[in-house]
Structure formats: C-alpha cells, structure tokens
Design brief:
Number of helices: 7
Shape: globular
Structural class: alpha/beta
Largest sheet: 8 strands, mixed
CATH superfamily: Vaccinia Virus protein VP39
Strand content: 15-25%
Amino acid sequence: MSLNLSLENISNENKIIASLIEKGASVLDMGCGDGDLLLYLSLYKNCKVQGIEIDEQAIYKCVGRGLSVLHGDIDSSLDDYPDASFDIVVLNQSFQQVKNPDRVLQQSLRIGRKVIVSFPNFAYISARCQMFFRGRTPVTPSLPYKWYNTPNLHFLSISDFADYCRNRGINVLQTAYTGNNRKIGLFPNLLAMVGIFVLSKKN
C-alpha cells in the first residue's frame, strides 16, 4: 500500500475523526474522496477500510493507494449492505451533499454500529456576518463554494443537527467541534466551522 500520507499533512478534521475510531475497527467511508482518512486509518490504526465514492478520478487515486473503493451514489448504494456490517460508518463532509440525508443516516445507522457525521456549520460567526452585513450567501473555509457551484444541497447548523438527532431518537455518543485548525469548546454553534458527531441507534 502506498505510504504517501504522513501524520503531519492529514487535515485536523481527519485527525479528530480518526481519534474517535478504535484500532482494528471495520470502517466504511461514504464519500471518501481521495481516501486520505481511509489510508490514515489503515496505516496508523490497522483498520479494515472500504470507501464509496462517485467521482471517478478520486476513485482512481484511491485504487492507486491500494484502497478498496466502490463507485456509487450514497443515496442509492446502501440497501444491499447487511445490518451491522461495519463497526463505523463515516459521513465526512458528505451528509449535507446527499439528496435525502434522513434516509442516508438511517441506513448508515443500520449498517454501522456507530456513525460519525461531520458537516460545515452554516451558523458559524463569519457566515452569519456575511449574511447580515452583506446580504449574500456566505463563503467560509468550511463553505468554500459560490452558490452556483456548491455540492452542498442542505445547509445546517450544529444546533439544527443536535435537534434532529433528539427528534429522531438518535443517540449522540460524542461530539467534537473545530475551527481554524483547533478544537472549539465554548459556543460551538457560533464559533465552530465544523461539527463532528458520533451516533448510534437507541436500543
């Protein structure tokens, strides 16, 4: 397997997600991109990893790194997986991009014992200021696209997602919040660029 990933050049968000995953776990990364997280987990945490990705160029890069990645659309690729077939399912910056996030998350909770979801926080203070003072769709480091080329279909805040989990009866096991390459402790809905949630089904 290619070793072209060091502990230094992995993103802070991926480091945090990796820290939430036990050594040797089986992991499905849905929307795995170039496979940085999967490679990190395989090399440094001895995890059994698999990815789903729709972008063919990203898949070629993953395969070149020795990773097992299936070509598929997250919205329609999960029905064939058996219940509890992975220890961890990861939706890393892909949850807000699917057409039906509610169905995708319910399927993820079915096939994974735990689910890790990360997403850009639309209520981040910079986004709020751009909306209030400029009256324009915000562009931030965690929301870097213009309104006309964004892959994001759903714009949610950390508080929105916490309310969603509560209303759906989903267990929130752990949370982490990041901004400017550091963890955010206080007022995450205002100060964090990205929210990370570890979830499970209620018994």
